[in-house]
Amino acid sequence: LAKTTQPISMDSYEGQEVNITCSHNNIATNDYITWYQQFPSQGPRFIIQGYKTKVTNEVASLFIPADRKSSTLSLPRVSLSDTAVYYCLVGDMDSSASKIIFGSGTRLSIRP
Amino acid sequence: EAQVTQNPRYLITVTGKKLTVTCSQNMNHEYMSWYRQDPGLGLRQIYYSMNVEVTDKGDVPEGYKVSRKEKRNFPLILESPSPNQTSLYFCASSPLGEISGANVLTFGAGSRLTVL
């Protein structure tokens, strides 16, 4: 499972666009990139997943450059309710190495 | 509704008193896993299971046991709980689908355990 590196924390204001970058230099050919959001005392929940280029859903966009060694989660026009911890995961649960390492995530704080 | 259900949600117990935290999913997922979350340490994997009767250790398995006798259930057993097992526990499940590496975890609501 590829190790990921994210900023520990970020601050922003309501209405701004927030971009959180994740570094995964050892990503394997079969690996997808998945982002989760976690609110205090709740389980993480899936936000978005991608393999290459750009993926967009109703919540966020995910930008993946051609070399796939990093990815950027983009949250458009954030609100106070977007305050949470965001985790980037890279890996494959089908292989024998099925340990899933979440890392410390990025603690995003949104201010009024 | 597709979900992962954990019970109990909150439990206070004493050192040495065996307890079981149940986890059940209704999505026919092959993969199930347990995590603990402690302040400053993030989510750490305890055990996981790729399918019925197939379990393996995660990063912090000491003091825990699991079993996977049925596909939908994956209980976490603390044979002799100690205070250092006071934590927030999460169960999660995922399909092992055709697209390798694209599986998404669904988490339960969490079980907050306090061992005195």
Your description of this structure?
The complex is a heterodimer of chains A (112) and B (116). Chain A has 112 residues and is mainly beta. Chain A contains no helices and nine strands. Chain A has a five-stranded mixed β-sheet, with no helix packed on it. A four-stranded antiparallel β-sheet of chain A has the order 2-7-6-5, with no helix packed on it. Chain A is globular and about 40 Å long. The termini of chain A are far apart. Chain B is mostly beta strands and 116 residues long. Chain B has no helices and eleven strands. Chain B has strands at 4-7, 10-13, 19-25, 31-38, 42-51, 54-57, 65-66, 76-78, 87-94, 106-107, 111-115. In chain B, the strands form two sheets. In chain B, strands 2, 4, 5, 6, 9, 10 and 11 form a seven-stranded mixed β-sheet that branches. In chain B, strand 4 (31-38) and strand 5 form a beta hairpin. Chains A and B meet through strand 3 and strand 4 of A and strand 4, strand 5, strand 9 and strand 10 of B.
First-to-last CA distance of chain B: 36 Å
Radius of gyration of chain A: 14 Å
Mean pLDDT rating of chain A: 89
Per the principal axes of the C-alpha atoms, what is the gross shape of chain B? globular
Measured distance between first and last alpha carbons of chain A? 38 Å
Q: Count of helices of chain B? A: 0
- Approximately what portion of the residues of chain B adopt beta-strand conformation? over 45%
- The total count of helices of chain A amounts to 0
Order of helices and strands of chain B: EEEEEEEEEEE
Spatial sequence of strands, sheet with the most strands of chain A:
1-9-8-3-4
Q: What's the multimeric state?
A: heterodimer
Short description:
Helices cover 0% and strands 46% of the residues of chain A.
What are the defining features of this structure?
heterodimer, A: 112 residues, mainly beta, 5-stranded mixed sheet, 9 strands, B: 116 residues, globular
